[in-house]
Amino acid sequence: MSHTPAFGLLGRTLGHSYSPEIHAALGNPVYTLFEKEPHQLESFLADPELRGINITIPYKQDVMPYCTRLSDTAKKIGCVNTMVRRPDGWFGHNTDYNGFVFLLKNAGIDVAGKDVLILGDGATSGTIHTVVTDLGAAHTTHVSRHNAPFYEDIADFYDTAQIIINATPVGMYPKSPRRLVDIRPFKHLEGVADVIYNPYRTQLLIDAEEMGIPYSDGLPMLVAQGVYAAELFMNTQFPIERIREMITAMRSAQENIILIGMPGVGKTTIGEALAKETGRPLLDCDAIFEERYEHPSQYIKNHGEPAFRKKETEILNDVCKETGAIIATGGGVITRPENYALLRQNGRIYWIQRPLESLDTADRILSTGGIGRLRELARVRYPLYEAFSQAQCDCTDAMATVRFIKEEFYEHFNHQRA
Question: From the CB of residue 56, how many other CB atoms can be counted at a distance below 10 Å?
Answer without folding.
Answer: 18
